[in-house]
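Minutes, methods subgroup
Present: GH (chair), OT, SY

1. OT presented the first of two proteins processed in the latest run. Sequence and structure tokens recorded below as shown on screen.
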Amino acid sequence: MSDALPDAPLVLVVEDDAPIASLVCAALDSRGLRRRVCTTAAEAIAAAAELAPQVILLDLGLPDADGIEVVRRVRTWSDDLPIIVVSARADDTDKIGALDAGADDYLVKPFSVGELLARVRVALRRVAHGAPAETTTFENGALTIDYAAGVVRAGGAELHLTPMEYRLLVLLARNVDKVLTHQYLLEHAWGPGQVGDLASLRVIMASLRKKIGADLVQTHVGVGYRMVRAE
């Protein structure tokens, strides 16, 4: 049983493998977080709606349904609840499928406890900061985006970005700490009636990362990109 304070963040652990669930719970307990364990998709969907957790840690191989169905159901009422998939499925197709369905992050088993807790901390920071899309400016370390003016600055100096670089940057900033797949970026940055391709995306992203600082945007090989918050 967790000794976490009643107002500590609640993590919903959706895992039917008892030893793994115990390991995850012990890790969360060590950081003073509350947790609730669910072993089926149906139980997880009900608990997510009833308990309003701050983070969901979700296995995909559940006994009654694929975990992606949990992602889809949760996304029908919440766009902001962080969902971290923790799965033994390591193929890029599985990662992309989960992320495209609405998951925020993907961790492959076996995992280190330290990495798991780091992913949870990132998710909790995202919740604490709220949704950046509702603000007129975005700040991340030395990077500032003035959405109204369409101006980007780094360390106070204005950056000269191409229209496509700016659109990609805005997508990443509005989804900070969330992995955006290549397909998502191609569909949303290029827009309807325009054609983008993976090679062009990689070239543009390389240029953008060079301008804003490569440490702000992580490359998830074979999957996509994620803007992280500066420490």
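2. SY then presented the second protein from the same run.
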Amino acid sequence: MCNILQVRWTLTPKTSPQPWIACSGCGCQKPFRSSGKIRLNANGKRLDAWLVYKCIDCDKTWNRTLFERRTVQDLGPSTLEALQRSDPDWVQAQEFDLDGLKRKAKRIDEPPDVILRKQTIRAASGWTLLDIEISAEFPVNLRFDRLLASELAISRSRLQALRDGGKLRAHPDRNDVFRHKVKDGVRIILDLSEIADRQAIGESAANSDNG
């Protein structure tokens, strides 16, 4: 099809999940933020590793266990190197391991703030269909309808009207997709052939000053 404006939105959370832990400094449960630092301890031929967190109020530390009694051979050279230098990418993957965090804390805050990068993949002259591809490597605590309304500069009620009229679809689709958190790999298709402000919506979809 040659009537498409195709864009890719890449979303990256600004803040990693914050588990609530009993803080000895504050004397109560407090959210802790990752320091981005790995602590390693050699125990004979085996290693223990922790990701260091700090209380957001008093900076008391909490060492989140990543593993215990692992051999260097089990880890492999690339993982060992990442641990030794607190590689930011490796650490980030641990920070967003929500399943692992839920085993340590009953409450986890997931801030909704994101960095959004927009990239135009294809822009046909006289386009009428807007195709938005979502890329989100890590979990994003932001609903689809809020994201679309904000970044397309239109109201959520208008979004709902477009969906009710069959002009707004998601792939893969489900009835409540727009009320759920943004997911990696979802594509949003808007038929704007009968919309007077199509160009303005397209400009909002393709241009970003966020992040």
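Chair's summary of item 2: The first strand starts at residue 4 and ends at 13.
Next meeting: continue with the remaining queue.
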